[in-house]
DNA sequence: AGAAGGACCAGTGGTCCGTA
DNA sequence: AGAAGGACCAGTGGTCCGTA
């Protein structure tokens, strides 16, 4: 049965289709497997229910076709249609998306996969004495594609980075948000938008408003560029607070009362 | 007189023409002056003997013309000739270049100036909530130009980065090399080439052969990209040693004897 | 000849918008 | 309508080569 697969808080746990390792060797790439040290748990590669036909037909070699069809009603779009990834829906933690959909655990899993691809690219670069990327760059996306992970692409990953950030930085809040938005029947776009606010709150609580340093201090998040929009929101909110506290302090007499710590990078 | 200006070990000290601050305000830039904390000494901007006509005639405002001509024989190339920076010559530490030449203290000073421009760009970026560069990027070179430092350009700075690196990482060795090459009457190109080897030695002694981490751990050097050629040389030398020690250990019986620490990033 | 730097180029970060 | 991702674009890192 498949209905009992709930309540695995992390990105793993939707244990249908235990697919074979998809991180295959590409141009001498090292399998980096167990040397993670971040999530603790063994990161067995899982994929949510999804038919994988590679987008372009005449490509290289390894196309690990999984032919266990446990999806219901996939009628005829088998042969060589322009096959996109199924759209995401808002799922609770541990919940498997049904029908032609993908869940959010799967989304977050993609970020971890990208990080693994980055580690492989880094290992190759060091081996060869080349410049070593610290972030998930175009080079990493290209590598992922060549390694057979055709379902990974830059626009998608960039689109949801801040959702993954919330998942990393405050998993409880992230989970609560997912449950609330699923409850209300909101679509993925709405959930995605809603992920911004809690992150701004985290930057505020941190005191520095420095979203870059927050990203960089988290081991799984540090490999991702801070999304422009998130940076803008943090900056706008800091300015808003700054203005407010300046006004209130000039009203209350201008004494050194409330918030002194911002603008520490002011002119000299 | 000017002949007594020797023996200032650092990049400062060639105290002719104490020119006014050339880090002028550009589009709201903060003068960052004293908040350095790296060199300790007050970094009063000095320039070696050099006539400054800006390259392009019809430009904005501030062109701090210094008209004390202590240079000998600059005949007639005053008006609007295509004026390049004087070429570098190999000088001892503290030595002022005579004639239409620039010395190496001046060269190294340019690197410090670029870092100050970077700090200004960083401050502006933080102020505005924009992405904040960690290295001397195109943006910084553009900013330097707009700030009136038309004598700074990317090809030049990139060309001599490793020379500056040696100056930062082992000033004694750097000074010795300069004296030796001046003694022998070598040109700048030869001196520049010779700067590579001691750096490879430093990477070797460090044990990791990781020239990137060596650059990044030095506060003044960390803002510069590691030159491709230097990275290649370090890698090649590591490989050479690796091969040699592998051969010798297979000759001596293959026991775990000599160098085990490299290839720590090997396949799993 | 030796050297300074304008200007070019392949590949980047970023994301829009034609597609399904 | 909501969403996935090919493909474009301005500006980057890197350095060659026409210039002086």
TrEMBL record, chains A, B:
Alphabetically, the GO molecular function entries are: DNA binding
UniProt feature, compositional bias: Acidic residues: 63-78
Where is this gene product found? Answer: Nucleus
Q: Please list the coiled coil stretches.
A: none
Which keywords does the record carry?
Answer: Activator, Developmental protein, DNA-binding, Nucleus, Transcription, Transcription regulation
Instruction: Say which residues of the entire protein are included here.
Output: 153 to 420 of 425
Function recorded in the entry = Probable transcription factor.
Where this protein primarily resides, as one coarse class?
nucleus
Organism per entry: Trapa natans
Chain segments carrying region Disordered? 28-95, 247-268
Q: Where is the Floricaula/leafy DNA-binding C-terminal domain?
A: 80-240
List the GO terms this entry assigns under cellular component, sorted alphabetically. nucleus
Quick one: a GO biological-process term for this protein?
A: regulation of DNA-templated transcription
Q: What is the lineage of its organism?
A: Eukaryota, Viridiplantae, Streptophyta, Embryophyta, Tracheophyta
Superkingdom of origin: Eukaryota
> According to the UniProt entry, which residue ranges have a biased composition of type Basic residues?
48-59
Q: Which family does it belong to?
A: Belongs to the FLO/LFY family.
Q: What is this protein called?
A: Floricaula/leafy-like transcription factor
């Amino acid at each position: 049965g498949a209905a009992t697969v709930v309540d695995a808080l992390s990105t793993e746990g939707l244990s249908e289709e235990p697919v074979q390792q998809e991180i295959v060797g590409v141009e001498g790439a090292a399998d980096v497997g167990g040397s993670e040290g971040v999530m603790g748990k063994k990161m067995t590669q899982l994929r949510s229910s999804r038919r994988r036909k590679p987008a372009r037909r005449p490509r290289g070699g390894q196309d690990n076709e999984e032919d266990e069809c446990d999806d219901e009603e996939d009628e005829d779009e088998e042969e060589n249609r322009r096959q996109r990834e199924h759209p995401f829906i808002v799922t609770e933690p541990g919940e498997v998306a049904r029908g032609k959909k993908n869940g959010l655990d799967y989304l977050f899993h993609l970020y971890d996969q990208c990080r693994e691809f980055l580690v492989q690219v880094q290992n190759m670069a060091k081996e060869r004495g080349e410049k070593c990327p610290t972030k998930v760059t175009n080079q990493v996306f290209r590598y992922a594609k060549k390694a057979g992970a055709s379902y990974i692409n830059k626009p998608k990953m960039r689109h949801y980075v801040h959702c993954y950030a919330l998942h990393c930085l405050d998993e409880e809040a992230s989970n609560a948000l997912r449950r609330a938005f699923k409850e209300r029947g909101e679509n993925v776009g709405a959930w995605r938008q809603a992920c911004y606010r809690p992150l701004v709150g985290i930057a505020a609580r941190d005191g520095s408003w420095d979203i870059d340093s927050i990203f960089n201090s988290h081991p799984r998040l540090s490999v991702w560029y801070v999304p422009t929009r998130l940076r803008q929101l943090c900056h706008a909110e800091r300015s808003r607070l700054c203005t407010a506290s300046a006004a209130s302090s000039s009203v209350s007499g201008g004494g050194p009362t409330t918030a002194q710590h911002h603008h520490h990078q002011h002119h000299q």
